[in-house]
């Protein structure tokens, strides 16, 4: 059954909780620069994630680990300048919150003050509980992230589906309840069985946003560059490509090159 969509002038963390209560699905995409953020925000997407996936998408690194706090602030500030409606959530990068709650708070404060972002996202459960509490106590909204946590890729050793075994699934459920009790406003579940994700979504009052976690959750997130087909090497089951920009842009660049070589560009109408 479809649910009437409420029009929001600005999306806030409360807006997302209200959406879940009404049964309205939440849309979330990534952006790392002003131009892309302007397009995503103008489309009416609810949440823009300035993900540490910028390490892969924008810088070409194999993992998300190399990106720094300064680089995340740069990307986030570029996105925030484009936004009129969407909630902007910024990933805390690897190494800025895991070991020391005080360092975690300093990192989150820098993101909020220097980028103008609206919230931060952190990967992990009980092992980062104190860091989460320290940040929340400072009045900074926190989105959790469980399941496949890319910052821990060297611990997992693979990007395969997480929490298929009973013990890991039980721990994920406990961590989700802990994040809700701690005060997180939402949780991303990445690459876990759809049935488990649905169970988690029903067990908490805060929104559960999935990526590779089925349709029984409260919203979905994809990397925009994957969704519009600017990337072409990455083809997981959960990805739906709405465009094939890699092919279209390659053709356009090739045509431009040919037109320059032949002298066709610029034409008489394209010069002063």
Account of the protein in words:
3-methyl-2-oxobutanoate binds at residues 52-53, 91, 121. Its EC number is 2.1.2.11. Belongs to the PanB family. By secondary structure, this protein is α/β, with parallel strands linked by helices. It has two domains: 13-241, TIM Barrel (Alpha-Beta Barrel), CATH 3.20.20.60; 248-272, no CATH class. It is 41% helix and 14% strand. It has helices at 13-22, 34-42, 54-57, 69-80, 101-115, 129-137, 153-156, 166-182, 194-203, 224-227, 245-262, and strands at 26-30, 47-50, 87-91, 119-123, 142-147, 186-190, 208-211, 219-222. It has an eight-stranded parallel barrel with strand order 1-2-3-4-5-6-7-8, surrounded by seven helices. The termini are far apart.
Write the layout of secondary structure elements.
Elements: H1 13-22, E1 26-30, H2 34-42, E2 47-50, H3 54-57, H4 69-80, E3 87-91, H5 101-115, E4 119-123, H6 129-137, E5 142-147, H7 153-156, H8 166-182, E6 186-190, H9 194-203, E7 208-211, E8 219-222, H10 224-227, H11 245-262
Parallel strand pairs: 1-2, 1-8, 2-3, 3-4, 4-5, 5-6, 6-7, 7-8
Helix pairs in contact: 2-4, 4-5, 5-6, 8-9
Helical fraction equals 40-55%
Strand content: 5-15%
- Mind telling me the CATH class of the largest domain? Alpha Beta
SSE string, helices as H and strands as E: HEHEHHEHEHEHHEHEEHH
Number of helices: 11
Largest sheet: 8 strands, parallel, barrel
Trace the largest sheet across and list its strands: 1-2-3-4-5-6-7-8
Q: Tell me the count of domains.
A: 2
Structural class: alpha/beta
The count of strands amounts to 8
Looking at CATH, the homologous superfamily of the largest domain is Phosphoenolpyruvate-binding domains
CATH topology name of the largest domain, in short, is TIM Barrel
Return the CATH architecture of the largest domain.
Answer: Alpha-Beta Barrel
Q: Return the average pLDDT rounded to an integer.
A: 95
Radius of gyration: 20 Å
- For the terminal residues, how far apart are their CA atoms? 58 Å
Protein name: 3-methyl-2-oxobutanoate hydroxymethyltransferase
Function: Catalyzes the reversible reaction in which hydroxymethyl group from 5,10-methylenetetrahydrofolate is transferred onto alpha-ketoisovalerate to form ketopantoate.
Subunit structure: Homodecamer; pentamer of dimers.
Pfam family, one: Pantoate_transf
């Amino acid at each position: 059954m479809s649910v009437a969509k409420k029009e929001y002038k600005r999306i806030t963390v409360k807006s997302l909780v209200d959406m879940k209560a009404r049964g309205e699905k939440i849309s979330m995409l990534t952006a790392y620069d002003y131009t892309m953020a302007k397009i995503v925000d103008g489309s009416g997407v609810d949440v823009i994630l300035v993900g540490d996936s910028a390490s892969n998408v924008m810088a070409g690194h194999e993992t998300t680990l190399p990106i720094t706090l300064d680089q995340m602030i740069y990307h986030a500030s570029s996105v925030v300048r484009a936004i009129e409606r969407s909630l902007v959530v910024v990933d805390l990068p690897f190494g800025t919150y895991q070991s020391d709650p005080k360092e975690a708070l300093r990192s989150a404060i820098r993101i909020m003050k220097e980028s103008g972002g609206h919230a931060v996202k952190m990967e992990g459960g009980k092992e980062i509980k104190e860091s989460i509490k320290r940040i929340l106590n400072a009045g900074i909204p926190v989105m959790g992230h469980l399941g496949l946590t890319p910052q821990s890729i060297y611990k997992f050793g693979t990007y395969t589906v997480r929490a298929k075994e009973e013990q890991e699934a039980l721990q994920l459920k406990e961590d989700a309840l802990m994040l809700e009790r701690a005060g997180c406003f939402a949780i991303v579940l990445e690459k876990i069985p759809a049935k488990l994700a649905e169970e988690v979504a029903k067990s908490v009052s805060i929104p559960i946003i999935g990526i590779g976690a089925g349709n029984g959750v409260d919203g979905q997130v994809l990397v925009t560059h994957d969704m519009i087909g600017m990337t072409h090497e990455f083809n997981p089951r959960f990805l739906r490509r709405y465009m094939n920009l890699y092919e279209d842009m390659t053709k356009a660049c090739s045509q431009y090159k040919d037109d320059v070589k032949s002298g066709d560009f610029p034409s008489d109408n394209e010069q002063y």
